[in-house]
Amino acid sequence: MYSVFVKRLIQNLNEIMFIKTKQNGLQTVRHFSSNSNVNPKLDLEVNRIIWIDMEMTGLEVDKDKIMEIACLVTDADLNVVAEGPDIIIHQPKTILDNMNSWCKKQHKKTGLTQACLDSTVGLEDAENEILKFIKEHTSEKMSPLAGNSVYMDRLFLLKYMPRINDYLHYRIIDVSTVKELCRRWNPKIFDNAPKKNFTHRALSDIKESVEELKFYKSTFFKS
């Protein structure tokens, strides 16, 4: 009971705390934030949403690898409860040299290719850190995975990070689906949707996805 009390206390502090951890060469920043406007009924752990985004060497699950993974948790009203690790995973030059031309160009442009070469973080360490974070803020098999075209991230989780996949609820919230429905059913709203920056870096892409769904929530799903 004491640990549960402490956990709740930390999550409801009206300040921002940055806790740096350095373990096995892995350095991340955990961002815990509290919003006084959050509706307590919407902030129950069973209503929370786990957002994950990855950058990969390609989209073929059987041969491509995860280069970067980031995670954050929101409440049901899409307020950020906690911002988790943004981790660059080491990949050898032989893997990166075999990326398709689009990935080579894009990941070189963002600096991700070099960052993967320089990283000392392995796949298992990255999985451990992400899993630790989501366990701190959600209950097992209660929170769905959310993101843009997030079915692809789910496939990579299933293959490369199965413990994270098993912890998640089986449902997903795919912002891309909402976007496609809005484009067909209400083009005027779709035309006013926030423009994406297409940075193709994991954490910034997640934040854009959250903002995008907030837009559709306040317009397309407006009661």
Q: How many domains comprise the coordinates?
A: 1
Major sheet attributes: 7 strands, mixed
Judging from the principal axes of the Cα atoms, what is the shape?
Answer: globular
CATH C-level class is Alpha Beta
| Percent range of helical residues | 40-55%
Distance between the termini: 40 Å
CA radius of gyration is 18 Å
In the CATH scheme, what's the topology name? Nucleotidyltransferase, domain 5
According to DSSP, the number of beta strands is 7
Task: Write structural notes for this entry.
Keywords: Exonuclease, Hydrolase, Nuclease. GO terms for molecular function: 3'-5'-RNA exonuclease activity; nucleic acid binding. Belongs to the oligoribonuclease family. This is Probable oligoribonuclease. InterPro entries: Oligoribonuclease (IPR022894), Ribonucl_H (IPR013520), RNaseH-like_sf (IPR012337), RNaseH_sf (IPR036397). The chain has 223 residues and is of the alpha/beta class. The protein has one domain: Nucleotidyltransferase, domain 5. It is built from ten helices and seven strands. The protein has helices at 2-11, 93-96, 101-110, 112-118, 123-137, 150-160, 162-167, 175-185, 187-191, 202-218, and strands at 17-23, 26-32, 49-56, 66-74, 80-88, 145-147, 172-174. The protein has a seven-stranded mixed sheet with strand order 1-2-5-4-3-6-7, sandwiched between helices. Strand 1 and strand 2 form a beta hairpin. Helix 8 (175-185) packs across helix 10. The chain is globular and about 50 Å long. The relative contact order is 0.15. Residues 1-36 have low confidence and may be disordered.
